[in-house]
């Protein structure tokens, strides 16, 4: 898949597609490549762009609120997720985090309890071109913990995250990380306590907040258009 981009317009397409826009119809060539320019039948140009992570965030089919790119960045930065890692993920949802990790070169097993959500996530992995790297499974991860082990990274966005964290020492290799997203501070506290009770090291919980800057002729200040808070991330490491 590619993106056709012009100013504030952006259309997802595949080679050979016929794309209808407000500026005319684009017959996308079969041999199209990133950096090419294609025109509508009215002569309006669009630039061809390859999809990157932020593009996937905007274009994957949604089944709920996906993890934000800034939160994914913290997960990758705090855990050092990289090529060759084995990742156990739970609470797939849209699959944004799983797709990002797959595109980093990690091998991901992700569990989603809702069968319809899981099917959408599988389609999203195809779009992200990581279907070979991301195994989307339908079910509750807590029902399969006895069969899972030797992961480098555990990522959770589920209500039963504390139950999984209690087993983190069995799930993770020595030095492996757990990263848990919690929408409410009470949930983050439960995860933090579960990590400490499980004997994990370097346990910390952070609030994820990001503010855009307003820059104009009067001066510069943080934007008041939103608080920028999304949730809490708890990190811990298997000794």
TrEMBL record:
<dbReference type="InterPro" id="IPR049470">
    <property type="entry name" value="TRM61_C"/>
</dbReference>
<dbReference type="GO" id="GO:0030488">
    <property type="term" value="P:tRNA methylation"/>
</dbReference>
<keyword id="KW-0819">tRNA processing</keyword>
<keyword id="KW-0808">Transferase</keyword>
<keyword id="KW-0949">S-adenosyl-L-methionine</keyword>
<feature type="region of interest" description="Disordered">
    <location>
        <begin position="216"/>
        <end position="239"/>
    </location>
</feature>
<dbReference type="InterPro" id="IPR029063">
    <property type="entry name" value="SAM-dependent_MTases_sf"/>
</dbReference>
<dbReference type="GO" id="GO:0043827">
    <property type="term" value="F:tRNA (adenine(57)-N1)/(adenine(58)-N1)-methyltransferase activity"/>
</dbReference>
<feature type="domain" description="tRNA (adenine(58)-N(1))-methyltransferase catalytic subunit TRM61 C-terminal">
    <location>
        <begin position="68"/>
        <end position="215"/>
    </location>
</feature>
<keyword id="KW-0489">Methyltransferase</keyword>
<dbReference type="GO" id="GO:0160107">
    <property type="term" value="F:tRNA (adenine(58)-N1)-methyltransferase activity"/>
</dbReference>
<protein>
    <submittedName>
        <fullName>tRNA (Adenine-N(1))-methyltransferase TrmI</fullName>
        <ecNumber>2.1.1.219</ecNumber>
    </submittedName>
</protein>
<dbReference type="Pfam" id="PF08704">
    <property type="entry name" value="GCD14"/>
</dbReference>
<dbReference type="GO" id="GO:0031515">
    <property type="term" value="C:tRNA (m1A) methyltransferase complex"/>
</dbReference>
<dbReference type="InterPro" id="IPR014816">
    <property type="entry name" value="tRNA_MeTrfase_Gcd14"/>
</dbReference>
């Amino acid at each position: 898949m590619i993106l056709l981009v012009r100013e504030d317009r952006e259309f997802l397409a595949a080679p050979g597609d016929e794309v209808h826009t407000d500026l005319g119809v684009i017959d996308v060539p079969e041999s199209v490549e990133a950096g090419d320019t294609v025109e509508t039948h009215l002569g309006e140009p669009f630039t061809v762009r390859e999809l990157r992570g932020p593009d996937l965030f905007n274009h994957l089919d949604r089944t709920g609120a996906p993890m934000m790119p800034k939160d994914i960045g913290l997960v990758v930065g705090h855990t050092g997720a990289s090529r060759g890692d084995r990742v156990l993920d739970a609470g797939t949802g849209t699959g944004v985090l799983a797709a990002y990790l797959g595109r980093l070169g990690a091998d991901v097993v992700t569990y989603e309890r809702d069968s319809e959500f899981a099917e959408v996530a599988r389609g999203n992995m195809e779009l992200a071109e990581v279907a070979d790297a991301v195994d989307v499974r339908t079910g509750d991860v807590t029902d399969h913990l006895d069969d899972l082990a030797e992961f480098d990274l555990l990522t959770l966005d589920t209500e039963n995250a504390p139950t999984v964290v209690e087993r983190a020492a069995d799930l993770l290799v020595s030095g492996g990380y757990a990263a848990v997203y919690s929408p409410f501070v009470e949930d983050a506290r439960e995860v933090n306590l579960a990590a400490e009770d499980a004997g994990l090291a370097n346990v910390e919980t952070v609030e994820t907040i990001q503010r855009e800057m307003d820059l104009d002729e009067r001066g510069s200040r943080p934007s008041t258009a939103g608080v920028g808070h999304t949730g809490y991330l708890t990190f811990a490491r298997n000794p």
